[in-house]
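FIELD: query
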Amino acid sequence: MRYKREEGFRYVFKKPLVGTLQIIKVNEKEVESNPGEAFFYDLSPGGAKIATEFDLHYKKNEIIIQLTFELESEHVVNGNIVWQDEDYHDGYYYGIELLIEEEKSTEIIDELKSFIQKEKSNK
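FIELD: result
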């Protein structure tokens, strides 16, 4: 089942933004996996579409991950996997619901707007 996005602001990157992901909780049990590479295809203050080579077995487990990415500054946020798709090269796409406070949400929106403006001026 696909997750229905209801937010008004979601930015789709022309070239995926490179970041990292780390599993921090599986079925309410805290864990600490090694960080792995993640490619951000879109981002909003409420969620993200990422791709990675790792099969996180989303349908069998409730998984909370920590994502790290950089816009104007580095962001470290937690998220809940809400869907998984196996159509990414040798890996998987994931829909992530970000678990962040309003202040962090506003910061991401502001930096995404700045990112978009810089991208437009570089054309």
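FIELD: remark
The radius of gyration is 14 Å.
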